């Protein structure tokens, strides 16, 4: 039996957190959810994750700022974790903008959960 992969979901919407958890837990991913970028960084200090789903617009610290902070961590393994942007403002950004910020991919809102699952699988395979 393979160990379940850990996904950190950074999202300020409880509805999206719950739907995402249900979809990913059905596929046996272990999920932890936080509501802002500061909580992402706090979680990374204490735990290891295989992937981060990062909302771009969050209170306290947004997803772009948080991703840049992760990419500059001393721990190279944590600094290199795959990060997938979740955004409703994708029109304000290009894939190139996301790549420059250090994001590996993005999924736009409203979320297509088949696409979200396929994106998670792509980065964890």
Tell me about this structure.
The chain has a single domain (6-124), classed as Response regulator (Rossmann fold). The model has no long low-confidence stretch (mean pLDDT 92). The chain has six helices and five strands, in the order E-H-E-H-E-H-H-E-H-E-H. The radius of gyration is 13 Å and the shape is globular. It is of the alpha/beta class and 125 residues long. The two termini are 16 Å apart. Strands 2-1-3-4-5 form a five-stranded parallel beta sheet, with helices on both faces. The modification 4-aspartylphosphate is found at residue 55. It is an enzyme of class 2 (transferase). Residues 6-124 form the Response regulatory domain.
CATH class label: Alpha Beta
Stated plainly, the CATH topology is called Rossmann fold
H/E order of the elements? EHEHEHHEHEH
Kindly provide the radius of gyration, computed on alpha-carbon positions and rounded to a whole number of angstroms. Answer: 13 Å
- Quaternary structure classification: single chain
What would you say the CATH architecture is? 3-Layer(aba) Sandwich
Strand content: 15-25%
Sheet with the most strands, sense and barrel status: 5 strands, parallel
Query: How many DSSP H or I helices?
Result: 6
Percent range for helical residues?
40-55%
Structural class: alpha/beta
Low-confidence stretches: none
Number of strands: 5
* CATH homologous superfamily classification: Response regulator
Number of domains in the coordinates? 1
Shape descriptor reads globular
Mean pLDDT over the residues: 92
Strand order of the largest sheet: 2-1-3-4-5
């Amino acid at each position: 039996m393979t160990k379940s992969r850990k996904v950190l979901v950074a999202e300020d919407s409880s509805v999206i957190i719950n739907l995402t958890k249900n979809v990913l837990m059905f596929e046996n991913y272990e999920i932890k959810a936080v509501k802002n970028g500061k909580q992402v960084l706090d979680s990374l200090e204490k735990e290891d994750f295989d992937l981060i789903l990062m909302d771009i617009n969050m209170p306290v610290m947004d997803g772009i700022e948080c991703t840049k902070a992760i990419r500059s961590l001393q721990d190279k393994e944590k600094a290199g974790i795959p990060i997938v942007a979740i955004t409703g403002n994708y029109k304000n950004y290009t894939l190139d903008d996301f790549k420059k910020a250090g994001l590996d991919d993005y999924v736009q809102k409203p979320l297509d959960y088949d696409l979200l699952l396929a994106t998670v699988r792509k980065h964890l395979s």
